[in-house]
Design brief:
alpha+beta; three-stranded antiparallel β-sheet; six-stranded antiparallel β-sheet; Arc Repressor Mutant, subunit A; Jelly Rolls; single chain
Length: about 280
């Protein structure tokens, strides 16, 4: 992997990456607890958010919000170049306490209106993203430069979203989309594959096949991943793990602890004490 530019701090990750021969099997369905923007420059790929598939053409911008599952699918081995930004809501709050700049992330159904093309913006996203790579004397100056251009990019995206959100929503009523919506509405309630299947008058095998085909992960793994991510966010915000596990749908602390360590490679106590820095799977 060729890192053309990388900047990382406690509350910001910006990368410009290129792979000459991307591994088709390397990119998995996942989710995390920061906002993400991915700007696709070149390659042959598509992007899946929840159950919606977005074809990628050069200069497509994809956005995802915390706990929105997503995956890049490489369709053929061609050079794959992109810029990515990851940031928490706390980075935006000081200048935007009302959350207007994050409306395109939050004010829409899961997996809907995630993709924008450069032609929808008044200022091309590549110009603002490229400005984030300008050399600076210190990390503090680099971060300031990235944040200033991020604010401008978010403002441009809000204008594009206001137009896009008037368009008809496609695929929202597909069977798997309804399952995803049901799970997210009842995420912390008692759930099982059997109960989810029953809610849609399906047998468990049929539900599992449909869900895995649409999302790339088993239905129960989807539930567990979302619960774990929500629990981790609560723990990092100061909620004791012994409280967070139950609030987020887990009934047994020992099982929760094992799954937490397996997924995050750290313990709930370590996250509670250290407030560990964001990490993500690549796209």
């Amino acid at each position: 992997m060729n890192f053309k530019h990388v900047f990382q701090s406690d509350n910001l990750l910006f990368r410009h990456l290129c792979e000459e021969e991307p591994d088709i099997h390397e990119f998995r369905m996942h989710m995390h607890d920061w906002y993400e923007m991915l700007y696709f420059i070149k390659g042959n790929a598509e992007f899946v958010v929840e159950t919606n598939v977005y074809p990628l053409e050069p200069h497509t911008l994809i956005i995802t919000r915390p706990m929105e599952s997503h995956q890049l699918r490489i369709l053929s081995v061609r050079p794959y170049e992109r810029m990515t930004l990851h940031f928490p809501r706390e980075l935006i709050d000081p200048v935007d306490p009302s959350g207007k700049l994050t409306v395109p992330f939050s004010d829409r159904p899961l997996g809907i209106h995630n993709a924008f093309h450069s032609s929808e913006f008044g200022i091309a996203p590549i110009d603002l993203l490229s400005a984030m790579e300008v050399p600076a004397a210190s990390d503090a100056e680099k971060q300031t430069n990235i944040i200033v251009n991020l604010y401008a990019l978010l403002a441009q995206m809000c204008e594009a979203f206001s137009r896009k959100s008037r368009d008809p929503i496609e695929n929202e009523r597909s069977p798997v989309y309804e399952v995803v919506r049901y799970i997210n509405q009842n995420l912390f309630e008692p759930l099982s594959v059997k109960s989810i299947a029953a809610a849609f008058y399906m047998n468990e095998s049929h539900l599992s096949r449909l869900f895995s085909k649409a999302t790339g992960i088993p239905v129960w793994q989807y539930v567990i991943d979302k619960r774990l991510l929500s629990a981790r966010k609560a723990i990092r915000a100061g909620t004791p793990a012994t409280v967070a596990y139950y609030q987020n749908g887990f009934q047994d602390y020992s099982s929760f602890y094992r799954m937490y360590v397996k997924k995050f490679k750290t313990t709930p106590k370590e996250d509670y004490i250290k407030r560990t820095v964001f990490s993500c799977e690549d796209h």
